[in-house]
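User: I'm writing a tutorial on reading structure tokens. Could you give me a worked example: one chain, its sequence, then its tokens, then a sentence or two explaining what the tokens reveal?
Assistant: Sure. Here is the example chain.
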Amino acid sequence: MSEYKSKAIIYKDFEDVYGPCGCGMNLATLPILLPRHWLVEERPPEVEEHEFAKGFDSRRVSGFSCNQVLEHEIDGIDYMANFSCCRECAERAIKCGYAVWAEKSYPMLLR
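And here are its predicted structure tokens:
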């Protein structure tokens, strides 16, 4: 289960309604930081199959473009902010090993 060199970070402390979750079943209420290489290179197959963090997050929208993605570095790993998911998808991602619950609160400069 630890085959993923970097994992998504899911925050519980900054819950809000960000838009529909990628699963299509619920509203996304948990913010996520995704490893940058998942977006620039390729998402792991299991992540892609689960549609993890692929929902429409309203924080990424500015006018007619969908480009408000912020970069953030934690422990030498680049992450991308303004992604989200529902609690069920978060729990599945953690169980599958490609995400972890955040140990700290959501970064203030990303709010």
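What the tokens reveal: Residues 87-96 form the longest helix (10 residues). The helical segments are 36-40, 45-49, 87-96.
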